[in-house]
Fold each of these.
Amino acid sequence: MYVVYHCRHARSLRVVWALEEIGADYELQVLDFQGAVMQSTDYRAINPFGSVPALRDGDHALFESGAIVDYVLARAGSGLRPGPQDADFADYLMWSHAGEATLTAPLAVIARHAMILPPDRRAPLAVADAHERWTQYADALAGRLAGRDFVAGPRFTGADIMVGYALHLAEVLDVVGAAPPRLHAYWRRLRERPAYGRAAAA
Amino acid sequence: MYVVYHCRHARSLRVVWALEEIGADYELQVLDFQGAVMQSTDYRAINPFGSVPALRDGDHALFESGAIVDYVLARAGSGLRPGPQDADFADYLMWSHAGEATLTAPLAVIARHAMILPPDRRAPLAVADAHERWTQYADALAGRLAGRDFVAGPRFTGADIMVGYALHLAEVLDVVGAAPPRLHAYWRRLRERPAYGRAAAA
């Protein structure tokens, strides 16, 4: 039984979503964002960076949403994780990483400087720059989706969970509206998955 | 034969480093940072986000440094990439992802707002906030290294390449000085690897 440390709208949504897709058994620990638990020594022993998500799997503790999604899919032997022998391996890897390192990065800057930091520490120029990058990246992602239902191969994979969270965050930040229609159609396809619905409600 | 698209001091250093570690055959294409090639339609067909690194492997094209490092190590069947059956699998995954998503993220903000953007678009408050986060993360990484030579398991792995690039960038940005001695010792251990030396000189 996995234990998942989660905050609403945080990257831990990816972990809950992945566990719901594969029907894994898990217990949810919902934390206050940047609250006392996340600052505590006990929690730092699980995740030294004091962020969510974290996962406990028996004696193992993991952090980083991209690592945990890959880990739980591997442990389940799930077809949502193409391996080195599969045609979609390269695409799975690159879109899994792009979901965080490219697509979520500017959104995290917007979240930080438009919502999370106290007003006197916010940098509007950083928000403007990140918004411009996000717009370019959303266009590039829409280009990728021409003639495709999912980012890596013909079927839904963990890479869609990694990219899908960026779109979830973009919606929370209200910056998804101007994206190309093809991106909206993809995001609707992801949102309609029952596992996403259960994760978003968690 | 791999073709690697590289800019000096960019994340593509990870790819060159990994290829040097495993002795793979590759051709290097050194691009001007944000130059004409990176903006071109031909390059966007390889990497729609117009960034480095990108890798060509026959008919396959990949982008995202974390994906490419994992891919080339998997293709080589390298022991630098623990698999699901190995004890260090979870640690390999989480530190590989942390190297980019946690450790490099604030450094990328500093690079952007202290070096890359034109002065009238830079946000000093974003640099200050990112510097504070980097300092906390460097402390947490130093804590992880207590009694360890490498971040995941007893041996050098691809996770050290992912984390090591963050330290390379921190040095370029001149923010590594105040880090705990244990972090300096780790960084020295990585820098002394011949494969890192060849990659940094590329």
Amino acid sequence: MVNVAILGFGTVGSGVAELLTKNGAHIDEKVETPVRLKYILDVRDFPDSPFGNKIVHDFSVIEKDPELDIVVETIGGTSVALDFTTRALCAGKSVVSSNKELVATHGYELIQLAAQEGVSYLFEASVGGGIPILRPLSQCLAANELTEICGILNGTTNYILTRMIHAGLSFDAALAEAQANGYAEKDPTADIEGQDSCRKICILGAIAFGRHIYPDQVPTEGITHVTLADVAYADSCGKKIKLLGRAIRQPDGRVCAYVAPHLLDAANPLAGVEDVFNAITVKGDAIGDVMFYGRGAGKLPTASAVVADVMDAARHIRSRKRMEWGPGGDDVTQSPDGLVCPWYVRARGTADGAHAAFGDVSCLARAGAPCEEVAFLTPPMTRAALNEAMGTLTPETVLRVLV
Amino acid sequence: MVNVAILGFGTVGSGVAELLTKNGAHIDEKVETPVRLKYILDVRDFPDSPFGNKIVHDFSVIEKDPELDIVVETIGGTSVALDFTTRALCAGKSVVSSNKELVATHGYELIQLAAQEGVSYLFEASVGGGIPILRPLSQCLAANELTEICGILNGTTNYILTRMIHAGLSFDAALAEAQANGYAEKDPTADIEGQDSCRKICILGAIAFGRHIYPDQVPTEGITHVTLADVAYADSCGKKIKLLGRAIRQPDGRVCAYVAPHLLDAANPLAGVEDVFNAITVKGDAIGDVMFYGRGAGKLPTASAVVADVMDAARHIRSRKRMEWGPGGDDVTQSPDGLVCPWYVRARGTADGAHAAFGDVSCLARAGAPCEEVAFLTPPMTRAALNEAMGTLTPETVLRVLV
């Protein structure tokens, strides 16, 4: 018998409770011991929920129960979640988390603590919702020297961009629709400004390259400045705009990690990832490119990843940690400013101005473009070279082109 | 120290030797003990190879070496490979295999034997080349009741179909090109007749649904009868032709498994999988659809999966098996004849004949169609109902439409 407590009875927490119950027989058979939901910690009561009788309000009930083996943390944030995770690990309980902010910010110390206490700290659900990615990355691709991770890591922004591309909605209209459909929060900042993607690329980069990467080491740009004009210009040259999180291993071993919208060729498998779906491509020296695709968020997909971790922890009660990486530091990352790529530029200016600045570039066309607007793709160059070359042009949107 | 022997120094075997050497430092660090290639078994000598000094010709050298821990079987087929695998497991050695034919035919008994001997029998490389699929299926998606596996499982046929679709090559010309590029064997039968896909869907189905599925329980149709006319008609209705292996859990718990070319909507993520790439979609009750994409064959991608298994076996020397399923039997599978779906029909006959037979179907058009040819998509029906309805039409190509 393995006893589980869920911290936080919100969307993910209630999904975990539902899945543990619905697929209970199947789960017990796979784990080869009964997995029982014993407590749900929340500040609220849920008298009408079938799980109402499991609600507790005091974390110390869970912390002090010697029969309690696994704590599922779905609280989010880094204050209470950090406190409870630390206390649970110190009390000899394995912890399973869907909290990307906590893992991206305090993952290294929590992994160390779990190792020291001889328990597991698992967080497959923190990246890509239900898509299996962290375990394949650390186990199945272990024979590779990995060189790059690149992914569409946020469903909300991908939904907004998809609606801008296919339905011609403005950013604001697409955001409002996403909120109406429950795909975006009332305060969508963390999604649309790229912070959610940033946390996820930190975790992916740490697993792939072996050192903790902190969110403040990752330059992050969201999609709020992407306009329908940009979508139209991208379409005119067979490309789509997607928000990507990237972590690229440099020859000196440092990791160039950043989040920004990019133009992608329509033939790139990531370009076909629509709506709230996520996809993560991994490049390795032996494997070439592999891609993992699926629902990056949502109650049951995320719960699916959490419960798989619970099952794994249940099979390895009091055994060693499964995911690990080294400490962070100033020597881990490198600015993307040195990264050479073609750029998409939409600017106030003229075709002559574009040619004077960037040579023989082809100007892009869109219906209804004002006459003082010019858009084009540059040759490969660094951002500094781009800024320097701009000449008479006043840039309005500047986006990297993925090659 | 963990000692490894490779059986068979062909494409995959030499890739494994290369990868173990090239990424040796990285591998040793991850496994936390040195992983050493000790023997390579082959009937030939390789005096010019850097691995020439590891060649042995007598399996009993490997079998009787008490220091030898892991045997990598890349021989292929089911005769010598079965004998050596059985003897290796009986001698207390873990076995890692890329041999889909052996796993699909004798997987259940070999898994049982490995369990009995307390060693591992791992075969991630047998499906999808380097794409991590078996471990994610059995571990990361373990919280789900899985309902369907559907995949492009063979790179050779996908290359041929891609060239027919995009370059307008006939089947024969595309096959010849695939052979010239090293993507198809001199005797391409196992690929183009679907047997390779069949073996892979057997393994995927066994892991997903828990019982051994034998290749002779899986109706298998290749792509040799697919013509450019079919490709053109599919294109005219926004679809692509892909060879799919499918395993679908039926309400009674049986598995409907088969291999056949299908028409897929261009928006389906599988439709965008081109050239020698493979992709596998998995449906689960919590996760919805997830897809795994990458190079399904080739020396280093396949070696990547083999070496990941070697690393996993090395970390769990003399521990329990990791993949498992129950015995096969007549009660495991169900014929796809009962499966209801729309059909693509290209027939000798007329539009009137098509309407008389199938009601208000829209006839498809292609340039240069002879006047006695008609093509259309039927409403959803079983194969028996389709055959019965055919009326005055003489079918030339009949393909399922994936919905």
Amino acid sequence: MPRFGGPATFMRLPVGESFQDTDVAIVGVPFDTATSNRPGARLAPREIRDESRLLRPYNMATRAMPFDSIQIADFGDVPINTYSIEKSLKIIENYYKQIFSNDCCPVTLGGDHSIVLPILRAARQRFGPVALVHVDAHADCNDSMFGEQFTHGTPFRRAVEQDLLDCSKVTQIGLRGTGYSPSDFDWSRSQGFHVVEAENCWNRSLVPLMNGVRERVGNVPTYISLDIDGLDPSCAPGTGTPEPGGLTTSQALEIIRGCHGLNVIGADVVEVSPPFDLTRNTSLLAANLAYEMVCIHPRVRSLAND
Amino acid sequence: MPRFGGPATFMRLPVGESFQDTDVAIVGVPFDTATSNRPGARLAPREIRDESRLLRPYNMATRAMPFDSIQIADFGDVPINTYSIEKSLKIIENYYKQIFSNDCCPVTLGGDHSIVLPILRAARQRFGPVALVHVDAHADCNDSMFGEQFTHGTPFRRAVEQDLLDCSKVTQIGLRGTGYSPSDFDWSRSQGFHVVEAENCWNRSLVPLMNGVRERVGNVPTYISLDIDGLDPSCAPGTGTPEPGGLTTSQALEIIRGCHGLNVIGADVVEVSPPFDLTRNTSLLAANLAYEMVCIHPRVRSLAND
Amino acid sequence: MPRFGGPATFMRLPVGESFQDTDVAIVGVPFDTATSNRPGARLAPREIRDESRLLRPYNMATRAMPFDSIQIADFGDVPINTYSIEKSLKIIENYYKQIFSNDCCPVTLGGDHSIVLPILRAARQRFGPVALVHVDAHADCNDSMFGEQFTHGTPFRRAVEQDLLDCSKVTQIGLRGTGYSPSDFDWSRSQGFHVVEAENCWNRSLVPLMNGVRERVGNVPTYISLDIDGLDPSCAPGTGTPEPGGLTTSQALEIIRGCHGLNVIGADVVEVSPPFDLTRNTSLLAANLAYEMVCIHPRVRSLAND
Amino acid sequence: MPRFGGPATFMRLPVGESFQDTDVAIVGVPFDTATSNRPGARLAPREIRDESRLLRPYNMATRAMPFDSIQIADFGDVPINTYSIEKSLKIIENYYKQIFSNDCCPVTLGGDHSIVLPILRAARQRFGPVALVHVDAHADCNDSMFGEQFTHGTPFRRAVEQDLLDCSKVTQIGLRGTGYSPSDFDWSRSQGFHVVEAENCWNRSLVPLMNGVRERVGNVPTYISLDIDGLDPSCAPGTGTPEPGGLTTSQALEIIRGCHGLNVIGADVVEVSPPFDLTRNTSLLAANLAYEMVCIHPRVRSLAND
Amino acid sequence: MPRFGGPATFMRLPVGESFQDTDVAIVGVPFDTATSNRPGARLAPREIRDESRLLRPYNMATRAMPFDSIQIADFGDVPINTYSIEKSLKIIENYYKQIFSNDCCPVTLGGDHSIVLPILRAARQRFGPVALVHVDAHADCNDSMFGEQFTHGTPFRRAVEQDLLDCSKVTQIGLRGTGYSPSDFDWSRSQGFHVVEAENCWNRSLVPLMNGVRERVGNVPTYISLDIDGLDPSCAPGTGTPEPGGLTTSQALEIIRGCHGLNVIGADVVEVSPPFDLTRNTSLLAANLAYEMVCIHPRVRSLAND
Amino acid sequence: MPRFGGPATFMRLPVGESFQDTDVAIVGVPFDTATSNRPGARLAPREIRDESRLLRPYNMATRAMPFDSIQIADFGDVPINTYSIEKSLKIIENYYKQIFSNDCCPVTLGGDHSIVLPILRAARQRFGPVALVHVDAHADCNDSMFGEQFTHGTPFRRAVEQDLLDCSKVTQIGLRGTGYSPSDFDWSRSQGFHVVEAENCWNRSLVPLMNGVRERVGNVPTYISLDIDGLDPSCAPGTGTPEPGGLTTSQALEIIRGCHGLNVIGADVVEVSPPFDLTRNTSLLAANLAYEMVCIHPRVRSLAND
């Protein structure tokens, strides 16, 4: 079957039937109702799956062999309610409780960033407060947006309030741009988050940064949340709230690969917006990043280690 | 000032300050949270205004001279809440109550079609149940969509339930495509609506149809709601739920021009989605249709009548 | 599940498992190696399936109820060899032999038009020479293109040579444009084909034409092959060899609906090229046309007949 | 050589060397400095030539055989000065004097519509005032635009003032939209022009209209000027000042084919704007229309006449 | 009001009424008649304003608080004459004289680069010859282009000739690509300009460069002119004369932020071409750069300094 | 003549007539039948030529003066057979034998990467096994793809088998992404190739790498093959098999410029796919890279050397 044929599951994986026998579940959350600017992330899960056709099984850089090591399946999409943020967050939370209770690790294709809150709520039930590696242009720690508590700009504020995070083990990378107050990022810092502004990433490898992250986080269950707008718009043009001056693709790869060794219990790529991704290369990038997230699963073997 | 310069109000109209002294108010409703498929209509009001730069003051076909006759101003956008359908519908209703209570006629740039319900609610308070000329691919009379009552597929069902329409004076034009039941359009008919399926419009002028509409409606206060997807996707590609086999642009012009003589108390153009309108020609079309709606205002003079 | 979520099968149909219990099989043929101008049709099956999300089960115009009447499933794609026309045609032929031998009716999502030859070869084995309703800008009856026998411009010449067609029951609709000789269409006519040039379709309903087709064809097993470039580029911009002056979408619907009553044994929509379909509306149109082909299956019930 | 290979001359014609031995000269005028809204027509000649690759030598509808009958060559582009309207108009006029003085018929690929004035000035020197078939959304008879005399909205006013036209033999087809005064088209009519507004073309064949044109014009030397925005934006989206409600592609073909029999001394297709023609189908349409203009050259043989 | 609603002024600033009470004036110059390749910059001011909706008031990197410190307003566009370079340059000069004479600092949204000449002419009247920080792929110091003196490739040659620049305090950053002579940049150097070719910027921070600039320039009144094509096409694809191998976005930010401390009397962002900016991210980038130019205004307070 | 006018040859070079008197021949190979994912490279030669209009004669960075030094001409395209890989490879080989036998250096505009095999076969006849500088995301050393030997993923495996390469003088730069086995690149290394994975290029200048290449290769005849997907998709979005994490444009320039001094006997830029290059900037980049390849021809003079 040529690359562009056959069912458009993630990397043409089989459709998942039970989380019980699955190590990593690919899950789409086609939800963008909590978006503040350009919508479209609802269309991302299908588009990322389609573009994942270009992926081959082995990771040449890390020599990871995910499909030789663990069970991976595509479970399709969470049946969210596009008309209600509140109902959708509840649906997502219940869905992910099932995943985590089966010791399955979700790699999520968003959707806007509001979806991370119910995922973290579900994770807490299984793991307690988790460590977080958060790549983003924005801290997403607003108290509210336009008067609302549950939006794509507020999930990590809610997560702290609901005790979902081990705050001393949270790292936010790539923050930048303009803010609602000159001290927007101070709130994150006051919670104990390690905030790495984009300006501190320019023109350098992030391998040292990630060495520090691994040291600080240790074996604590860790969630990775990657908002595609953490990358520079040159690398990820197809997104809803682009901010110039962001990370390069190679830095994003360094971050995910640098999480190898952590006790990763879930990960997501969010905020890809296909209507603004005319070449479809942002979806293709997201597919690659999701694949890299699979490759760092603790039970994946790597030729590099043999 | 060249066409492409200066403030991007509708046709470079002055910014409206009071509905009291205004005959026709251009109003944007940048809301698309009630959309079921491709989002993006939230971006339409700004885009339609930008493309309206190509419009000159006089209507060559009808010889209408709107700006010589009445006061027209652009009042900007209704400050909807993008995260809540319920709150937004309330905000819209209150906003339009102000308009109608000042005997001002709104020409609305949507936004998705859910916004017509609060407009009709506001209209009822001033006019009682109104006649309706509704151009659309879809009847928008579903009882609910995905379990929700207030979406872009349900406004006219709600409008009937809330006694907002003079059902015997409702005309739906352009309906077509696939449905949730083979008798979807029967509900409309059972309410007394005059349903004109797209198939009955193919290859013909709609002037006779509109003659009939004017006769049937008489002097009853009339609202015009034009979903851009009533037109064929060849004419209006930039929309969220396109249906092949629709009206031509000339038929849409015949419908609006055919409303001249009715007691039009408001009108809208909805469901333009700029992310799917790469040439911006759908926004430009919508600008033209909104202009034609202005031109049929009862107090607009026409050289044709002089 | 929202429209844009869930597995991207045609209309979210179940994945087919056996042709034996299936009345209509949706099959993709992601092949464009036989294209002469702009490539890209290889990407169409996935894109048409994705855009088919907008389709609901019932046909409002014909009141057909396909899913209440017959078994329909999506069998995914034929595993063609993108590097070899010859091998692919053989693979396709063998695949379709299986379909036809199970009395299953294929509705095919192309792919370029070369794929119709192996389908017709397979059909002949089951049905003998078939009647044909062929919608296209081009006769596709060249003897060769650039020296080659098997291309997207030659399938019907080959089909006649191989006695696959009941030539007196072949109708070609929409032919137009420029040719390699001023008598290009004469070959078709000399075989007994009924050739309806696009110029003879302008500004008129094709219902009378199709009444004639049904009369002429009678009960002979009939195949429908619809090259999307039979439609005007305004209606179907996303294709590889567009020709101005073609059929309207409503005429295409009249043709397919006008085949109701024929003994249709298979149908296809070919030559959609997603890279040239930036709004994705051509894929959406193709999805609708494929749906209409399902609706005219002889065993589909219609409320209109009840 | 495949269609998409080889030198990108019009229809891969040889490069013209002398107007003397050439019946029809294809000439590009890559000029858009006189545009009032969206620029880009400067890029059209190269793009139309590229897309002309799809054209084959014979006209299937009219059975014209241009390349068997006359000498046709592509002379490339006029070396206009993109920074000066005044200088460019002079350059164009001198260039076309050469063409006309050699009894060669130019088929011009614009460029914006300002370029027709110097062409008509050159034509007058050879032929005296000429008859005109002018397809356009706009009369292009403004006295000035933004204070300037020489723009793409004024050429035919200047042409009348300079006695370039046989006014009783001028036909303007497709005019519509909005104007600077309700009587904009009255000026044309007061000069004796035959003005056919777009509204009078809707839903009908233009064959009768063109019969009348031929009768009225007789043997007077005739120029054809086709602004692509005369067509509806659904048919010709890639243009700078689109106006909804225009001619269909089939009507444009009827107009040009209906000029067969006239003493055509030159023709142009103007106002294609490639940056707004993302599918390139408007350029392809323009290539087809230019080809049809070649086919009606008085000395072209047609199989239909044999 | 959601981000995408309300009037499309820069950052939804109030419309400026008097330069007298304004510290920084946002001004658009929708002019592209002096462009040599792809046009479209005329459409940039409106597009940059629209995309500026994503900007929030505070600068997270520099902690600047512009709106808490100074009066900023959007004065709309200069009413240029799109048909005449000469007249437009005069109109622009007169317009900017008004600005400078009121001690107001203009931040200009171009338009092509020709517009910097009249701005510098106006500046000279108030400040004498100014220092210049010029970011660009091209030196824009040609003696003429295609025989013309006033184009987008010549403004700084004219500026030197007219004694508008303090040549020893001019820095040109990002120059690269191909030239009309192998010593094109030598002219700049011979005037005393500090020329930093793009090759000298690759893979490094420009903070040291800017330290040097500030030292060299001191307190001399300084103008910043940023041609968006100074950035690499990966960062700024939507422009008319892209040159591969340019600055990164982070380097552009370093340059503007590195001007903090200079006596900046005006700044511009030019050469954004919306028709080539399909994602609109180049306009969004330009909006961010214009915002950064506001933030370095000498009277803007910064939390970093408190 | 403005940049956008005149014949669309590479840099408006004259059309080549004889390889004998030509130092460097620009040749297009419009072939993409051997592509595995997104097609479209067949359209690249025309598009690269069109966009080469922006190039001026002198190289500002290297001060090379190619047109003052050697004879360069555009020979148009190789007349490949789009329907047959096998026949096309033979046609290409024969065509290039002519070039090499005339001591002419081809700079080729692809086309997909399969075309390098027949070029290398032709080169071997003249030069014996050659050194290779190969920029690519992929090693293109698969044994077969989907069962086929001659595809765009296999040319260098075939080249080794056919003894076309001096394996110890082969450098592959930019390899990355996912593979069919974790040891995909080991085959290259086992042949003696110098493999430089993309990860080893991140955040650094490649000048030292190229110093090593020149040292290792010495005076051996060298071919340069640059697959545009060697660059990061941010720099070269318009290609068929993009891989995130690639080279920057400045690194690509360092590689080509770093080949100055080698005995370069031919070079190519392949895999540009115009349908995925909506801004046309990838074609423009390819034009620049081809120009740089011309500039390093051994007989080109440079002001830097004078």
